[in-house]
Write a structure and sequence with these properties.
single chain, about 400 residues, alpha+beta, Beta-lactamase, 2 domains, 8-stranded antiparallel sheet, two-stranded antiparallel ribbon, 14 helices, Diverse_Enzym_Activities, Beta-lactam/transpept-like, Beta-lactam-related
Length: about 400
């Protein structure tokens, strides 16, 4: 079990200019100096070797506690790739096909209805023309949504039912899934892309198919084999736990948020496969190495290489990007030049995306401004951890890409 991160290679040995990598600390150090971020930790590796680790600021500003290598972070939607891996572990065992209707295991989705007109108070719906299938959930094309979007009457229906930034008090994953199934879809399954609770529904699918609670499946089938001993639905070390911050509307400086900040302190009623995990940089780094190695880490194989390749290919019809197929709403990645696979964004056109990264890069991020990406072509992985909600506050991910790739000199 890895609890410490440290540079284990000369950056030049893996094609980096060390002085150029130091620009990462110089750039993001200013975010701490001027109060935009409480603190952060960044990790860059190449060819399986850690070439750069930097940290600045505090995990808890008010208590004066610094960011440390084993700080516990709420990773929110960086939970989604882990849930998607769990689904594909079961897929490889022959538990289902990707085209199977989810109603086979979740009968509450047997007769979904789709919003066609009206309002949140008086919606007019029609029957879905095809069932929601497993791959619809993996690709966010099922027609589900999030209450926090504030862009469609169905979003308002979600909020009215207790689903905005969380779930109704006391409702477990099974109950939440039943309630989502009762709400109308935003569009016909497969017709568009919309960031949604789909991955939470996948978490419930894992529970039903495996016969295990989601936290137990994660622990036994993913975290223990990969040595991710500090990852779970609640922190295992409250004294290492980072506080959560939001930007002050007037000054832009990070201010503590106690309401959302309680998430991760204890096991929640709803085990959210879409956003419920707490982790460390070391643990999630191991997860990215497992992905870079196409399903294997330190002699332990959880997925076959072809499965990882399928997951990290663009599944949007016609090979289009999210700009062409997605709703122009919030997501954890840009839309231009990025498609979507089975649980990851997939870079399809670096020129259109205006990025130095490589075609085929896959990635995702979390609501508190955490992020990761894996670049198979360049054999690079990068991670960034902080606790500022929402992730749209600063263009951290775009700058991190610039700063990592400008340091590649081979």
């Amino acid at each position: 079990m890895a609890t410490e991160l440290k540079v284990d290679t000369d950056p030049a040995e893996v094609g980096f200019d060390a002085r150029r990598l130091d620009r990462i600390e110089g750039h993001f150090g200013r975010y701490v100096d001027d109060g935009r971020l409480p603190g952060w930790l960044a990790v860059v590796s190449r060819r399986g070797k850690i070439a750069y680790v930097a940290r600045r600021g505090h995990r808890d500003v008010e208590a004066g506690l610094p960011v440390e290598m084993d700080t516990r972070w709420r990773i929110f939607s960086m939970t989604k790739p882990i849930t998607s891996v769990a689904v594909m572990v079961l897929y490889e065992e022959g538990a289902f096909e990707l085209t199977d209707p989810i109603a086979r295991w979740l009968p509450e989705f047997a007769e979904p209805r789709v919003f066609v007109k009206g309002s949140a108070l008086k919606p007019v719906t029609e029957p879905a023309t095809e069932p929601i299938r497993v791959w619809h959930l993996l690709t966010h094309t099922a027609g589900l949504t999030y209450g926090f979007h504030h862009a469609h009457p169905v979003d308002a229906i979600y909020r009215a039912n207790g689903f905005e930034w969380g779930t109704p008090p006391g409702a477990d994953l099974a109950e939440c899934t039943r309630r989502w199934a009762e709400l109308p879809l935003v569009f016909q399954p497969g017709a568009e892309w919309n960031y949604s609770v789909a991955t939470d529904v996948l978490g419930r699918l894992v529970e039903v198919v495996s016969g295990q609670p989601l936290d137990e499946f994660f622990a036994r089938r993913i975290f223990e084999p990969l040595g991710m001993g500090n990852t779970g639905f609640a922190t295992d070390s409250t004294d290492k736990f980072a506080a959560l911050y939001v930007p002050d509307p007037g000054t832009g400086k990070a201010v503590r948020n106690e309401a959302f900040g309680r998430s991760g302190l204890e096991k929640p009623a709803c085990l959210s496969g879409g956003g419920g995990l707490v982790s460390t940089a070391a643990d999630y780094h191991r997860f990215t190495q497992f992905l870079l190695n196409r399903g294997e880490l330190d002699g332990v194989r959880l997925l076959g290489p072809r499965t990882v390749d399928l997951m990290t290919s663009n599944h949007l019809p016609g090979g289009v990007d999210l700009e062409a197929y997605g709703r122009p709403l919030f997501a954890e990645m840009p839309f231009h030049g990025f498609g979507f696979g089975l649980g990851f964004s997939v870079l399809t056109d670096p020129v259109k995306a205006k990025t130095l990264s490589s075609e085929g890069e896959f990635a995702w991020g979390g609501a508190a401004s955490t992020a990761f990406w894996v670049d198979p072509a360049a054999e690079i992985t990068a991670l960034f951890f902080t606790q500022l909600l929402p992730s749209s506050t600063h263009p951290i991910r775009q700058y991190l890409r610039q700063l990592v790739y400008q340091a590649v000199v081979d």
